[in-house]
Amino acid sequence: MEWIKTNGKGLLLCLLLAVPSWFLGLRFPLIGGAVIAILLGMLLALFLKEKAPFASGIKFTSKKILQWAVILLGFGLDLNVVLETGKQSLPIIVCTIAVALLIAYLLHRALHIPSRISTLVGVGSSICGGSAIAATAPVINADDEEVAQAISVIFFFNVLAAILFPILGNLIGFDTTSGEAFGIFAGTAVNDTSSVTAAAATWDSMWRLGSQTLDKAVTVKLTRTLAIIPITLVLAFLQTRKGSQTEGTAVNFRQVFPFFILYFIAASLITTVAVHFGVDASVFSPIKTLSKFFIVLSMAAIGLNTDIVKLIKTGGLPLAMGACCWAGITGTSLLMQHVLGLW
């Protein structure tokens, strides 16, 4: 009862924003429920004069439920299928991730962009948008405004990619009798799953390929999602070293270790074993849906904790970083596909 008294009001407020955002996201998949939720949260925050009664519940939603969302993402990830399909795209995935993280680091040093927002934009651009940001934020102790800023940057380039990439694929001569080349391109170069599916589905409809492109793009994207695991572990280690150097004392690695990533791996292994013994992968669909809703719910909380005026004033440099990461990923993906003879 005490927990409900402390967190109930804030959790309910987030839920009231998340439910319509979820349905609007289904209606407008190019934007997605997470972005709608964060925008609604930021707008409501402008008019919410007394935030104290909701503060604890909002914090719980933006931190804990966000971690639960990442854990539930593991269900439905059959590691055997992902790794089998990923063999073809793995060199491209590794190169695009490396390029994006390198660009983010160099711009962080050159333009003095804060390290946490640089990390979030770099990881979000290179791996899987909102999910990667959700996994990384607790590890580096990013605040809600930094998360909101990174999500906004990723969203902007998601929309551009979903609209422009099918046109680009046609202009540069991707094979239109098979969805393989464009599917790999979408899966490696587009940030968020919603925009990957939007771009791939557009290509399928343009050339009447059924779901060839979509199937390929989503599987490549799932392979790319697995990069969350090593990235968060490395960041946890770096956070430990940084804490030790700053405070002059040893920082316990367990305090910053992202244990929820272990649960993410466990969820993936459960799915893999279950599928191996004949369980249909569709059984895990409701859990995946719940994961996506939890992300929307968390984004509503993050929006409520965000100062939209400050976000607009400080958004220029992160947006420029996102543009450079996006250009680097796109160019690297195309170059690697050409080198590997995929187009």
Can you walk me through this structure?
- With 343 residues, the chain is mainly alpha-helical.
- It is 82% helix and 0% strand.
- It contains 16 helices and no strands.
- The N and C termini lie far apart (61 Å).
Task: Please summarize what this structure is.
With 343 residues, the chain is mainly alpha-helical. Helices cover 82% and strands 0% of the residues. Helix 1 (2-27) crosses helix 14 and helix 5 (115-128) runs antiparallel to helix 6 (130-140).
- The assembly state of the depicted protein chains is single chain
Poorly predicted runs: none
Question: What is the tally of beta strands?
Answer: 0
Distance between the termini: 61 Å
Helix content: over 70%
SSE ordering: HHHHHHHHHHHHHHHH
Radius of gyration: 20 Å
Q: What's the helix and strand layout?
A:
Layout: H1 2-27, H2 33-47, H3 52-73, H4 79-111, H5 115-128, H6 130-140, H7 144-172, H8 180-189, H9 193-207, H10 212-225, H11 228-247, H12 253-256, H13 259-276, H14 285-304, H15 308-313, H16 316-339
